[in-house]
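Now for one specimen:
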Amino acid sequence: MKTVIIGANHAGIACANTLLDTYPDTEVVMIDRNSNLSYLGCGTALWVGRQIDGYENLFYTTADNFRKKGAKIYMESVVSDIDFINQVVHFTNKAGEKSAETYDKLVLATGSKPIVPNIPGKDLDGIHFLKLFQEGLAVDLDLSRDDVKTVAVIGAGYIGVEIAEAAKRRGKHVLLFDAMPTSLASYYDPEFATKMDENLEQHGISLHFGELATEYKGDGHVTQLVTDKATYDVDLVINAIGFTANSDLGAEHLDTFKNGAYLVDKHQKTSDDSVYAVGDCATIYSNALDDTTYIALATNAVRSGIVAGHNIGGTVLDAIGVQGSNGISIFGYNMVSTGLSVTAAEKAGIDVDYTDFEDLQKPGFIKENALVKIRIVYEKSSRRVIGAQLASTEDISATIHMFSLAIQEHVTIDELKLLDIFFLPHFNQPYNYITMAALGAK
């Protein structure tokens, strides 16, 4: 069995490792257009903001590691065409040399691509995107320049908020824009998102929400950002509007989702029996929605790669769906969520209710302590939990894993009310905020 994997970041790596480590008789070929692989893009803001010493440890493996395992790997090679009928991949390396590889099974792990606003001035210098390592390097270099004083970040999702913090830590005046009325609107309800907004403002970031970029101005290099409300003088623009599936290679041959992502089954198989798709270029099943959707997260990419690898290798393994669990920490303020917010559930047509609670993480006599805010979202008809959000300066991140499992297993809000939760003053309160929130449900 010969498997060709196009794309060698998180999903492709997970698939390749699964095949090479578990099914030694499988021939593996990896093709990637980049000069590096395994870059942890979620660490870009930490490096750019000088919260870690450098970028070197943001790479967790190398092409040589796969060669040592027996894989054939082509780096800096661009796939130009896939002959799905004869099962051949055609590609060209950086020297312009053309090659081809036949396959028994093909894995598309081409990831996602940034959404580029189609507005005047989009080709000016000084306008950056953040996806690849090289793009992070370019942003870091520009932030090192003394003449770059004002930075506009467009998009207040996770990447936008994180890079806004990083630029502020580098001593820049930062303007943060988003068309939505709050930051992090895709993950958190306003009652939570506004707390992050307050945190950003308290640390000197200028917020411009409900504002849409309409034009970039400049003579070769961007000097102004025009929105539907005002014009701002800027020295640098970082676009973080979001991502969409990078599915150009197979879009005409394979069934796709409404955003263009490859439609896959529980084995990560596409509409072509010989082709699998993993990671950000493919759909995923949401246990909160109980339906197919698109969620671009590195953790989902890894899991989908593992599932595809085992099915290609001969072990039937069903994906169990995801919840879209996520988290963020900005200037010491931590927020985590999983499943659907109230806003997202209503947008999906799910009739929900929610219960909120706020209390100290630990008993009042513990000096190192802080408030925790929690929301549990549940479907009215079935009363199953479909989402949770938490926020605190305490580390409340592990709690979201329990809610992720609860959503996966269709646990009801009533089953949570008397959940066995341990108590010790070092960690929590006897009346735990999870219990109290659940007991507060209608």
Q: What stands out?
A: The chain has a mean pLDDT of 96. The longest strand covers residues 352-360. The two ends are 56 Å apart (CA to CA). Residues 153 and 228 are 16 Å apart (CA to CA).
